[in-house]
Amino acid sequence: MSFRRLIGKLSLLVVMLLVLTSGLTIFGCRGELGAIARGWSGVAIADGALFLGSMDGKLVAINESNQDRLWPDVPFKASEQSGGFGCARAPEAVAIYGTPAVAEDLVYIAGYNGKLYAINAKTGALRWVHPREGELEPIVGGPVVALDKVYIGSSSGEIYALNAATGDREWVFETGDKIWSTPSVNGDTLYIGSFDKKLYALSVADGSKKWQFETEGAVVATPLVYDNTVYAGSFDRYLYALNAANGSLRWKFLAENWFWARPVAANGIIYAGSVDGKVYALKAENGDKVAEFDLESPVVSSLISVDGSIIAASEAGQVYSLTTGNNQKRQLVNLEEKIYAPLAASNGVIYIHSEKDVLYAVDARSGATLWSLSLKSE
């Protein structure tokens, strides 16, 4: 393994350790001022508004056209007794790792304190929180809303389906290890990965298992469902293509390191970013490699498709536009700030939440930075 590849692997290991130890940062006894939350929430876009979790544990709502705050940032705090530490002092901020989900008039956002919140998208008022008392195990992935339910995975290894309007529990499914993956829902089926090295397909109606597929490593990446096939990467360095109906293997592709980010599909091609620093372009039907793009830094942020181009970000802070016709890699912008959060886009604008808790709006064609906004509390 080259020195650069080794550094790339170590870089992500540092990120993983940050997640594993942030529970102590959030819930431990840290003095009167409490701890500083961290996270890498992506941006949810709905009805001209941008919603994301800040790194000091708040839900931020921004007008997409003029960058005004729609309402005061909503802070999320750990309870004084969270995690059994019972420090008997002011509640501390909660790290937010998953991207919010928006449906109807509610924004759903999950915290590392093991709670899922439903917030009024117009006013910022809390509609409900689950569980109402106590907490689940830490939540790393984001929620997904479909068919009047909101779905979330927990570090306990359980997947919860809650009534989207009330937060009441509808069903629970237990895997064999912790879940950091965000679920994907397609039709009447939910797909999600687990640290037990398996990818699961569940009925959204009652949580019954339709099938499971076992890999050789933890499955953290959010699955992609495209043309009746489920694509998911694993820490065993393979990207898997599975029959969406029965979980049978269609093909698998071996990279030089883990797959962390969610892949994206366009025109019969699957684009998958790896911790080895490359984005692989593979034929959806058989996994044959069409091209590979070396970003020279781990790819942990999920890719997006914008106006016919694939947009990818490296951990080091470079954002690229990729095209397979001529295997061209064009740098759009170099933020010089680490990027872990998933990318988002709307109306030809790319939204990037950097490790320094700054939200950038970048023109997808020219790479010009249209605006930037610090999310840090003043």
Give a quick summary of the entry.
This protein is mainly beta and 378 residues long. 7% of the residues lie in helices and 41% in strands.
Give your account of this protein's structure.
With 378 residues, the chain is mainly beta. It has a domain at 246-378: Lipocalin (Beta Barrel), CATH 2.40.128. It has one helix spanning 3-27, and strands at 44-46, 49-53, 58-63, 74-75, 101-103, 106-110, 116-120, 126-130, 144-146, 149-153, 158-163, 169-174, 184-186, 189-193, 198-203, 209-214, 224-226, 229-233, 238-243, 249-254, 264-266, 269-273, 278-283, 289-294, 304-306, 309-313, 318-323, 328-334, 344-346, 349-353, 358-363, 369-374. The strands form 8 sheets. It has a 4-stranded antiparallel β-sheet with strand order 1-2-3-4, with no helix packed on it. A 4-stranded antiparallel β-sheet has the order 5-6-7-8, with no helix packed on it. Strand 15 and strand 16 form a beta hairpin. The longest helix is centred in the N-terminal third of the chain and has 25 residues, at 3-27.
